[in-house]
UniProtKB/TrEMBL annotation:
Entries under Gene3D superfamilies matching the protein: Glutaconate Coenzyme A-transferase
Family annotation (InterPro entries): 3-oxoacid_CoA-transf_A, CoA_trans_fam_I, CoA_transf_BS, NagB/RpiA_transferase-like
GO MF term list: succinyl-CoA:3-oxo-acid CoA-transferase activity
Record-given protein name: CoA transferase subunit A
UniProt entry keywords in alphabetical sequence: Transferase
Record's keyword annotation contains NAD: no
SUPFAM superfamilies: NagB/RpiA/CoA transferase-like (SSF100950)
Pfam family, one: CoA_trans
NCBIfam families tied to this protein: pcaI_scoA_fam
Amino acid sequence: MNKVFANATEAVYDIQDGKTIMLGGFGLCGIPENAISALVAKGISGLTCISNNAGVDDFGLGLLLKTRQIRKMISSYVGENAEFERQLLSGELEVDLVPQGTLATRIQMAGMGIPAFFTPAGYGTEIAQGKETREFDGKMYLMEHALHADFALVKAWKGDTMGNLVFRKTTRNFSTSMAKAGNITIAEVEELVEPGMLEPDEIHVAGVYVHRIFRGSNYEKRIERKTTCIQ
């Protein structure tokens, strides 16, 4: 099976209106920049996007929000995007805010084939409405379901043509779990090598989870919020 695609446009060719998409990264760190740009150019709409963050106004998922291509966001932190706020308050955007640990675990459970789990996070709040609760050892818990997606889009530092992926530092956050939770996982990498050129012990996601891979280009790697310390 040939998993290698020439570019992002070819790799996302079958993502259609109304699909559910996971997008890896944390903040603006390690986001699939090329794949997001390809989705903007493709012009599809009605997307449900699962991501810890919603990007900023002119970068990352903010680009898809600007063009009104996202119907629903499932996220944990969305405080850096004014357009997101505007669409939410005007009722244009459906939003499911999920505690960060719960979001991460729901994605992990999908990759592990576990349909649901119990967590104390959110019990007694609006998050608990309509969800099953249960008591364990005198403490109340919510049942949360695993979170699946039609497509998972992730960006890795390095990969081989069989789909094995290596991430660098913070970029590993969410991406390694999302790569295992999509029906089709598409990976963009900064460096694409031949099989056998990656050390087995450095591989974070095995190629069996990755369906398509391509070498990305022109990465901005923008810093979301810069803090300067003055001595």
